[in-house]
Amino acid sequence: MNLQEPKKKRHIKLKEQLPLPIVLGNKNEWITYTAHLTDLGSCIIDPSEIVAVHSMGYFGKGSLSRGFPSFGKTRYGVPPVIRNRQWLRRQEWLKQFNELSMEANSKRTNLEESKCELSSSKNLDEDDIKSLKNPAKENIPDIIEIDTNSVSLNEKHKESQQIDKRLEVNGTNSSSMKEDDSLIIIENKFNKQCKNTDNNQRKSMESEERNFFADFNLKENDVCFTDNNTDVQNKLLVLPDSDSETENYLREIKPKIECESFPIQETLHLTFEETFFLLYGLGCLNLIDFDGNLLDIDSAWHIFCKTDKNFVSKYVVYHYFRSKGWVVKPGLKYGGDFLLYKQGPPFYHASYIVIIDILDGDTLVTDQSKCMHKLTWNSLLGLERLSETAAKEILFAQVLWPSSALHTSNTLSVDSLSEFSVKELLWRRWNPKRNKDLEEEDDDSS
Hints:
Blueprint: E1 33-37, E2 42-44, H1 47-55, E3 61-62, E4 81-83, H2 84-122, H3 126-133, H4 140-169, H5 179-212, E5 224-225, E6 235-239, E7 256-259, E8 268-270, H6 272-281, E9 285-288, E10 294-295, H7 297-307, H8 311-323, E11 326-330, E12 338-342, E13 352-360, H9 377-389, E14 393-401, E15 421-427, H10 432-445
Parallel strand pairs: 1-9, 4-6, 5-7, 13-14
Antiparallel strand pairs: 1-2, 2-8, 3-8, 6-7, 9-10, 11-12, 12-13, 14-15
Helix pairs in contact: 4-5, 6-7, 6-8
């Protein structure tokens, strides 16, 4: 049977990296990543670990992005673009967060004060009484502050004497001027210098921001500069709200740059199969439960089997295709269980839609009690039409359930995975013309 060649994507800018996130460190240490258990799998929070796990093997999906977690990041020097309603919502979140933090701090201070009062009333020793009677140590900072102030006054007095000498040279009377006037002159000169430097910086920053918006074909009056800082890493490009496509939106647009006051951190979400493959198959993941405890392989296996009744069969298929070099992703959007990619979604389109079928290991008959799908001819024809329009093929992954294993997946152990096997079955629509060409080729070869 002739298999179709995977369809490669055009204009690929990424470089292919290692297929699995197993890199040895400088000290020959096995690098591990940390994930936190969730209701649907696990999530990785650390940004550096997110990049490593997703770029090497394309495990997981961004919580706020289609694939790679790129939400809130600058692209080509442009800050992230949000709508005005999103900006206002973030301001509300920041206000609520500040209120909650203030309440928590007030409660904490009240508890600490009450504990201090109880401890002082019960455990008041003679040394404490002597320290209260002799507060000499508490007066030391005040003496230091007085000395620093006297030093600063002496410096100002020297500066005033220098100004008096300059005035005498110019023919003015130094006696008619007071120390306060000389100090005012110094402060005015300092303020003028600061204003000049601020104006120069402001002009340079505004020119840079205007050059930054040159790609938008906007006028100078259409842009609102709200901050002088040109660091786009902590900036947001706020656009006005527009939900209709008929209005002339681009002519009257007035974007503005705002500081990121409430940053939203994106995480990398892993499914149960991806989490257990990194934990059990590669050994490069540390899984933490809801209580903050580190889970081992057996405890994670029992949690996943208890949460998802089809986890055993899904993981067997996932591990099987990953070991063959395919990048396995969820296939819900195409009506299947998994999608198979060559090298990864950025390089190739999905080649196969995988549907899991469970067979008895001895009789090779479909086990209806553990079957994940109730396939009918109508559903198969609809899935075939969908796969043809999406330029993909349907691949049945038949899991041969061993007779030695128990029928329920909740009581299975991790050691029983070696007894499972997978059989591939490629589904294709019968085409008389194609079959006729294959028969002619067989006759010519004979």
